[in-house]
């Protein structure tokens, strides 16, 4: 499996229908946390695929189930369902169906589930990717998930009567599927372990996953394999008086006519997308700090005094994407030094520190690395005094352990680094550093971001808004001032008004100059192809002015009107803007008119309070990777309903919607393989539409629905749109898509609004 601790239940040639696998291993029976994995191939009208635990023992059991087309569902769908049995009846609760994904395509798929009885949570994965989540589940029998002696039936229902040897005259109900490779773990696997499991099992000799044209037909089924060499029996297990099925949607069974039951609706198998709990700042800080403390305790337990990060070691593997073919411009590092050694060589008698006084944007100095986009974001963040929220470690420590937090796919993750600094001779830091030579925070923050990307070289080139989003968890966007829409906004004055509002609301801004080599400087002093920070946007005495900072923090500055030595400055304007001319600090003012000429892009990171953010996680995978509206399959994409509630239901609501794709990024270190950069070559063109569909899933023909907004298709990590939605009792449908069918990736859909809303899958 590629994952330690697996207990094998079934590992042989593909098995048709199923088999009785005997009791669950005793080491798992008392566990509060388990994981389960099965490789399977199913038909659209299959019965139950796998029962884990035994109904006839009147215990808790988990079942992978399939719903057939005769139930009004277009294709077979697989889900995880909890069954609890009391003394007199079995109940299948609709809300306990964890996920629903069509896998009735005649190919092999791997379903993995993790169950945490302590938290009452279950998570489902399909082919190594997150598929569904549910909490608030009664998962325990007493103090554990299963009792000793609990048995496993794989791919077949247990019979109604069974003897002491697990045999009966009827061996259960056949399911139209193949199964193999069934495993259990006595713990909850991590997302990375699930991905590794899929990679390992999918590459096994018996797997047909790599052969998309090898479509399975039921006639291809091998004979049933079980311990008794018996034929599958046709037993009507469900005409029992003591069983009350709460809903006919489970397992494709027919509802008994003499019993009342719920009417099957199309959303019976609506996917349960994970809704992350919003942590407070203090909770995030304590969680990050606990990681650092654990590393420190392990260091002391080994009898060591200084930390060296083996995931990001002080060598060429951390410097370059490919150490065998490093770029010449970055071959400047001759040694790696600890801060104490750097201080002794360059600042004798001074002791290193993490911060030397309050952080200041002018402290940030770019080195030999082309990461001005990241350092511009750092300077912008420092300007509003938020950098201390990013760096978890509070001060210099002799162990050399520092923790930085970044927002990855909408969730805060800790990145721990050591304090080995790449240096040129003689002992000078090669990359970003602080103007206060003994101060470490700039170098360590850059190192942590390099680790997230996989190497320092991977930071060459990027987008300011991406870095701002990673640092703040905000919502990013880019305005191309050469676009037709931006030109209209410039002419009308709307864009200037927007910038004033953005600054007033505390949003973070950056700017990009026209394409160039990042070394060419125009005659006006603007570096071409370079990222700048926008520090202020002001209108004073009729003058529209922008204050800008070059992360090089040197004499390379704008030399036109409103530059430091410009005659435009009057005492009155200087007083209002608190302007003090300082040479060689990289900070300058320029007019809004000149800004439009010398800059191409404006980068924005919107910072919203956590209570304004409504987020769902989803993915385009298999059937649900439908592509854009140009394809007949576009309606198969995941769809989400946005509904205003309470007093806001009768009012127009202002919303800002973002769609973020999360493709595996090959250059990242092992701990961060879900991280995505806008310069990742694996990025897809993504977009979204917002429709009125009367609260139902959109039909195959998009023109049957009223469109109220959307985005263009852009191969960016994140796209966004902003609009005002009029009152709509049935809500609005948001459909995120890639541009072509079959492009598979996870995504995060977020809606930011002050209004009271719900955001749920359709």
Automatic annotation (TrEMBL):
Q: What GO cellular component is one of the record's annotations?
A: plasma membrane
* UniProt-annotated catalytic positions: 372, 530, 550
Q: Which UniProt keywords apply?
A: Cell membrane, Cytoplasm, Developmental protein, Endoplasmic reticulum, Endosome, Hydrolase, Membrane, Protease, Repeat, Signal, Thiol protease, Transmembrane, Transmembrane helix
**UniProt membrane topology term:** Multi-pass membrane protein
- UniProt cross-references to InterPro entries, sorted A to Z: C2_III (IPR033883), Calpain_cysteine_protease (IPR022684), Calpain_domain_III (IPR022682), Calpain_III (IPR022683), Calpain_III_sf (IPR036213), ConA-like_dom_sf (IPR013320), Papain-like_cys_pep_sf (IPR038765), Pept_cys_AS (IPR000169)
- The answer, when asked if Repeat is one of the entry's keywords, is yes
Any single biological process term in GO? proteolysis
Query: Which superkingdom, per the lineage?
Result: Eukaryota
Q: Where in the cell is it found?
A: Cell membrane; Cytoplasm; Endoplasmic reticulum membrane; Endosome membrane
Q: Which residue numbers delimit the Calpain catalytic domain? A: 306-608
**Quick one: where is this thing mainly located?**
membrane
**CDD domains in the record:** Calpain_III, CysPc
Q: Which GO terms label this protein's molecular function in UniProt?
A: calcium-dependent cysteine-type endopeptidase activity
Do the record's keywords include Ligase? no
Similarity remark: Belongs to the peptidase C2 family.
UniProt-recorded name of the protein: Protein DEFECTIVE KERNEL 1
Q: Please tell me the species this chain comes from.
A: Trifolium pratense (Red clover)
């Amino acid at each position: 499996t590629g994952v330690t601790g697996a207990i094998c239940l079934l590992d042989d040639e593909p098995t048709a229908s199923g088999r009785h696998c005997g009791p669950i291993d005793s080491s798992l029976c008392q566990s509060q946390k388990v994981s389960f994995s099965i490789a399977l191939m199913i038909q659209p009208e299959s019965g139950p695929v796998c029962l884990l635990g035994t109904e006839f023992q009147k215990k808790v059991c988990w079942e992978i189930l399939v719903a057939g087309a005769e139930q009004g569902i277009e294709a077979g769908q697989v889900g995880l369902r909890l069954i609890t049995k009391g003394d007199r009846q079995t109940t299948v609760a609709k809300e306990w169906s964890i996920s629903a994904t069509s896998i009735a395509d005649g190919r092999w798929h791997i379903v993995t589930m993790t169950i945490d009885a302590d938290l009452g949570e279950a998570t489902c994965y399909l082919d190594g990717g997150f598929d569904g989540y549910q909490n608030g589940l009664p998962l325990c029998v007493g103090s554990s998930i299963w009792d000793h002696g609990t048995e496993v039936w794989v791919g077949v229902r247990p019979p109604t009567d069974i003897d002491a040897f697990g045999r009966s005259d009827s061996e259960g109900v056949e399911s139209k599927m193949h199964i193999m490779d069934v495993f259990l773990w006595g713990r909850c696997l991590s997302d990375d372990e699930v991905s590794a499991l899929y990679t390992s099992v999918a590459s096994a000799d018996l797997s047909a996953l790599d052969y998309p044209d090898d479509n399975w037909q039921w006639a291809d089924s091998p004979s049933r394999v079980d311990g008794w060499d018996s034929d599958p029996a046709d037993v009507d297990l469900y005409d029992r008086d003591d069983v009350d099925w709460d809903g006919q949607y489970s397992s494709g069974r027919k509802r008994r006519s003499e019993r009342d039951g719920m009417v099957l609706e199309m959303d019976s198998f609506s996917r349960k997308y994970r809704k992350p709990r919003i942590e407070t700042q203090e909770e995030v800080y304590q969680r990050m700090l606990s990681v650092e403390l654990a590393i420190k305790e392990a260091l002391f337990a080994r009898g060591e005094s200084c930390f060296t990060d083996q995931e990001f070691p002080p060598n060429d593997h951390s410097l370059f994407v490919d150490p065998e073919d490093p770029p010449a411009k970055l071959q400047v590092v001759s040694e790696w030094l600890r801060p104490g050694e750097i201080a002794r060589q360059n600042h004798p008698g001074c002791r290193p520190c993490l911060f030397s006084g309050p952080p200041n944007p002018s402290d940030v100095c770019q080195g030999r690395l082309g990461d001005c986009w990241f350092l511009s974001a750092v300077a912008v963040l420092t300007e509003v005094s938020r950098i201390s929220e990013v760096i978890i470690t509070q001060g210099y420590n002799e162990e050399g352990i520092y923790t930085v937090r970044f927002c990855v796919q909408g969730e805060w993750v800790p990145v721990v680094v050591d304090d080995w600094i790449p240096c040129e001779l003689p002992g000078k830091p090669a990359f970003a550093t602080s103007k206060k030579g003994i101060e470490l925070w700039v170098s360590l923050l850059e190192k942590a971001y390099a680790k997230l990307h996989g190497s320092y070289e991977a930071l060459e080139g990027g987008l300011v808004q991406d870095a701002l989003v990673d640092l703040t968890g905000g919502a990013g966007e880019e305005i191309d001032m050469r676009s037709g829409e931006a030109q209209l906004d410039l002419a009308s004055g709307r864009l200037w008004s927007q910038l004033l509002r953005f600054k007033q609301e505390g949003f973070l801004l950056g700017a990009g100059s026209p394409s160039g080599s990042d070394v060419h400087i125009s005659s006006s002093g603007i570096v071409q192809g370079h990222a700048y920070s926008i520090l202020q946007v002001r209108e004073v005495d009729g003058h529209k002015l922008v204050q800008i900072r070059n992360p090089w923090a040197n004499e390379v500055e704008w030399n036109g009107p409103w530059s430091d030595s410009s005659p435009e400055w009057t005492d009155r304007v200087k007083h209002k803007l608190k302007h003090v001319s300082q040479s060689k600090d990289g900070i300058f003012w320029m007019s809004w008119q000149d800004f439009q000429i010398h800059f191409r892009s404006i980068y924005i990171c919107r910072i919203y309070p956590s209570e304004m953010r409504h987020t769902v996680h989803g993915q385009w995978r298999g059937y649900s990777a439908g592509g854009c509206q140009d394809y007949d399959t576009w309606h198969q994409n995941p769809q989400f309903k946005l509904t205003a509630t309470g007093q806001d239901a009768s009012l127009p609501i202002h919303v800002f919607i973002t769609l973020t794709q999360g493709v595996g990024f090959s250059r990242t270190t092992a701990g961060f393989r879900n991280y995505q950069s806008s310069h990742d070559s694996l990025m897809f063109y993504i977009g979204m539409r917002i429709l009125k569909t009367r609260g139902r899933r959109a039909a195959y023909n998009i023109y049957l629905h009223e469109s109220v907004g959307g985005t263009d298709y852009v191969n960016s990590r994140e796209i966004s749109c902003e609009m005002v939605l009029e009152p709509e009792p049935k809500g609005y449908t948001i459909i995120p898509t890639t541009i072509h069918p079959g492009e598979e990736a996870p995504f995060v859909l977020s809606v930011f609004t002050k209004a009271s809303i719900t955001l749920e899958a359709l």
